[in-house]
Amino acid sequence: MTLPATVGILMLDTRFPRPLGDIGHPGTWQALGLQPLYRVVSGAFPTEIVNPHAHPAWLEHFIEAGQALVNQGAQVLTTSCGFLARHQTALQSSLTVPVISSALLWCCELDAPGILTFDAQRLGAPELDGAGVASGTPVVGAAAQSEFHRRIMGNDIHMDLGQAEHDVVSAALELVKHHPEVRHIVLECTNMPPYADAIRAATDLPTLDVMGLVARCLNPGRAQSRNRSGRKAAASTEVVSPDIICANISPLAGPVDKPMC
After folding, report:
1. Which H, E and C letters describe 127-166, residue by residue?
2. Quick check: 10 pLDDT over 90?
3. Residue 96 sits in a domain of what CATH number?
4. Residue 80 in domain
5. Helix-, strand-, coil-residue percentages of the chain, each rounded to 5
6. E strand spans, the chain
7. What pLDDT does 176 receive?
8. Within a domain: residue 82?
């Protein structure tokens, strides 16, 4: 019997709800045939990391946590915050397994991507450049006072998930309204995938997340394609990967010294 591949997830220090589809829900990974290993970086609250002035010392804490996960058997590492794309190169050069810091790494291989982020005011050049995102790629974020943004940034134990879905879908609709050229939506925020089906239904566009990127790296035979038209697949609740060839990270590849692109 083949054991499932193991994913190490570097987690921010959070307590907000994590429904199925969220990176912090074990069932999200199990639906992909993968085994999650979690490591919380103590004190790495959203206000500390989703911050253009985040202290550089946090990098060493994430490297230490990553090494601990590798020692536990993680075959690939990812993170619970797409803003850690700013450290993609440093993380990868310090660790001996593939590191997929952020869904932003999708952008360099997609035709006309648009980014749906947790906070468009805070997502800047360090994160975009760290993931090799092309200049001019459209970025739209959740509204600053929305339920979704406020509860996560405040690290609140409560969240109205129905309202959070409305907030995220509204941001997606704003993205495609103002940037009709967008053909793929990339979810920077790992707390947005629970609402991916609703985003696809509202926009009719393929919607990609970091879990799909990890699944493709570890287990491409199981990583299934979302409906390429962007329409919601009937009776499907799995978070799966689009069927796009990965040119820079092969299954269980060794370390690279630069972003996947």
Report:
1. HHHHCCCCCCCCEEECCCCCHHHHHHHCCCCCCCHHHHHH
2. yes
3. 3.40.50.12500
4. yes
5. 35, 15, 50
6. 5-11, 34-40, 76-79, 99-100, 113-117, 139-141, 184-187, 207-208
7. 98
8. yes
Residue 246 lies in a domain: no
**Torsion angle of C-alpha atoms 255, 104, 207, 158, degrees rounded to 10:** 100
Are 239 and 21 contacting, i.e. CB atoms less than 8 angstroms apart? yes
Question: Which range is most confident: 152-156, 218-222, 236-240?
Answer: 152-156
CA distances from 37 to 11, 74, 195, 209, 226 (A): 10, 7, 23, 18, 25
> Where do we find the tokens 């952020």?
102
Q: At what angle do helices 161-178 and 196-203 cross, to 10 degrees?
A: 40
Q: Which tops the pLDDT comparison, 241 or 125?
A: 125
Asked if residue 45 lies in contact with residue 31, where contact means CB atoms within 8 angstroms, the answer is no
- 174 assigned to some structural domain: yes
Q: Give me the number of domains the chain comprises.
A: 1
22: DSSP letter: B
What is the reported pTM?
0.86
Residue 55: domain span:
5-218
* Dihedral in degrees, nearest 10, Cα atoms 202, 204, 205, 211: 60
Tokens 């459209």 sit on residue: 138
196 φ, ψ to 5°?
-65, -40
Q: For residues 139 and 136, what is the distance between their CA atoms, to the nearest angstrom? A: 9
Which among 124, 121, 84, 75 has a CA at the least distance from the CA of 105? 84
What the block records as the tokens of 117 is 């982020």
Question: Is the pLDDT reported for residue 164 higher than 70?
Answer: yes
